[in-house]
Amino acid sequence: MTSRVFIDGAAGTTGLEIRDRLAGRADIELITIADDRRKDASARAEALNAADAVVLCLPDDAAREAVALIENPRVSVIDASTAHRTAADWAYGFAELDPGQRDALGRAKRISNPGCYPTGFLALVRPLVRAGLLPGDAALSINAVSGYSGGGKAMIAMFEDPASPEATDTAFRAYALDLGHKHVPEMQTRAGLAHPPIFFPSVARTYRGMLVEVPLHLHLLPGRPTGDALRDALAEAYAGSKVVHVVRDNPPFLTIEQAAGTDRLDLFVYADEKAGQARLIAALDNLGKGAAGAAVQNLNLALGLDETESLRL
User: Fold this and answer.
1) Does 200 fall in a domain?
2) How far apart are CA 38 and CA 31, in angstroms?
3) Are residues 95 and 122 in the same domain?
4) Which of 40, 124, 165, 166 is least surrounded by Cβ atoms within 10 Å, i.e. has the fewest?
5) Angle, CA of 121, 124 and 130, to the nearest 5°
6) What does each C-alpha distance from 106 to 11, 46, 273 come to in angstroms?
7) What local confidence, expressed as pLDDT, does residue 293 receive?
8) How is the beta sheet containing 53-56 ordered, strand by strand?
9) Is 177 found in the same domain as 145?
């Protein structure tokens, strides 16, 4: 049986990555629109309503407009924008996040793809909150660095233009210094936190890859959990997952490219028991599990297919 899929925004960075993963699949037929009609509302509406599943790779407002064009109740929507990530009537597209989440995604007609930074943060924090090792009112911070492809075509051009300072002079750049990053509400809501975490995002002069770190003072947590206890809780939460791996033997260092080019998510717990400190670190590809890989995984679930089909694990 072949499912018809339309990628709205297929020419963007995430859309191209999704198309690349779906290429050659006999169980999926991609609906396309001629280049000169890509912005034609009637052509888009026709494609949106003719599909079994739609993946939206659009800015927030355009994603909302696309959803409004869908009248066919049988169409499943996976939205890769920020528009619906905290919406109660949209299923959150992180299959591994909570017990029952995978089944919920299989039943849902509206799925919001997680953000790349929230994926790393939530993978580390949500299971610990659920297990009671991290209180819901914990004051948390996130240090994270992404490859420049996470900024889309504009940032890619900036870092790859030989005449641009970013291409030659900038190795690392911190941003969102006003603490108002759009991913923060998603991280707070989906982790089940009482307070928004302090988020320190940055971009490095490498195309893809991401490290997301959450530092903890273990002696300030209820029961003073050890690093092993945190690692064991994460391992239990993701037992059997083909996508999320909890690493037992920590390497001496991690690179931003640790999981680049894959759709997997690697989790690490580094701890100094004497100091009562720990560093929880997630490594992923911002274009993989942080975007296109997650969208394909959610697409597979929405269509009742093997969730890891086409994923790069």
Assistant:
1) yes
2) 12
3) no
4) 165
5) 110
6) 27, 25, 41
7) 98
8) 28-31, 3-8, 53-56, 76-79, 110-112, 91-92
9) yes
Block mean pLDDT (10 aa), the chain, length 313: 94 95 95 84 93 97 96 98 96 97 97 98 98 96 94 82 76 87 95 96 94 97 96 97 97 96 98 96 98 98 97 96
Q: How are strands ordered across the β-sheet holding 244-246?
A: 172-174, 198-204, 141-147, 210-217, 277-284, 265-272, 244-246
Whether 140 contacts 310, CB under 8 Å = no
Q: Are residues 157 and 55 in the same domain?
A: no
Is 57 a known active-site residue? no
H helix count then E strand count, the chain = 10, 13
Report the length, in residues, of the chain. Answer: 313
CA torsion through residues 263, 285, 127, 299, sign: negative
Per DSSP, the three-state class of 85 is coil
Cα 189 from Cα 185, distance rounded (Å) = 6
Say how far apart CA 136 and CA 128 lie, in whole Å: 10
Catalytic residue selected from 22, 53, 58, 116 = 116
User: Helix, strand, or coil here: 84?
Assistant: coil
- Tokens found for residue 24: 């050659």
d(CA 113, CA 97): 12
pLDDT score for 256? 96
Strand pairing class (141-147; 210-217): antiparallel
- Tokens 């947590």 -> residue: 221
> pTM to 2 decimals?
0.95
Same domain as 134, residue 106 = no
Q: Residue 252 is part of which domain span?
A: 116-286
The closest of 301, 210, 292 to 10, measured between CA atoms, is 292
Whether 241 is covered by a domain: the verdict is yes
Q: How crowded is the C-beta side of 89, counted as CA atoms within 13 Å?
A: 0
